[in-house]
Specification:
The protein contains three helices and eight strands. The chain is α/β, with parallel strands linked by helices.
Length: 129
């Protein structure tokens, strides 16, 4: 969802570090799995939406990022790429003119920090498998 009001959207918090089982987010704390969005971050509780490695990330997980102003969405497949991202989710985001990236966790962290400097970005990051 492009708001056209990027200058009023809060900046997405920076990821300070990432290791197996933990992600440190500037000003937000430490998480095992994290939802990052313009203005904040919170623990990503897979139980809220029925997320699991298979069938993978749910559109309901992504919707929260969009509601908080993300114009770019980055989806982590996990450190060992075991978390699935169904093609329908990528297609849905593209149909909404949302730039979407799907990467293993390490690449997700790098790309997220890079994009967060210039655009409202949201991410779902899985810190283990």
């Amino acid at each position: 969802m492009t708001t056209g009001e990027s200058d009023t959207t809060p900046q997405s918090p920076r990821i300070e570090s990432q290791a197996w089982g933990t992600i440190e987010v500037e000003g937000q704390g430490s998480f095992k799995d994290v939802k990052l969005f313009p203005g904040g971050a919170r623990e990503w509780d897979w139980g809220e939406t029925g997320t699991s490695h298979i069938p993978g990330i749910q559109m309901a997980d992504v919707e929260e990022l969009l509601e908080k102003g993300a114009e770019v969405v980055i989806l982590s497949q996990g450190m060992l790429e075991r978390l699935q991202v169904r093609p329908e989710i990528v297609q849905e985001l593209q149909a909404r003119n949302v730039q979407v990236h799907v990467l293993p966790t390490q690449g997700t962290v790098r790309l997220y920090n890079e994009i967060s400097r210039t655009k409202p970005v949201g991410a779902l990051i899985h810190s283990t498998c």
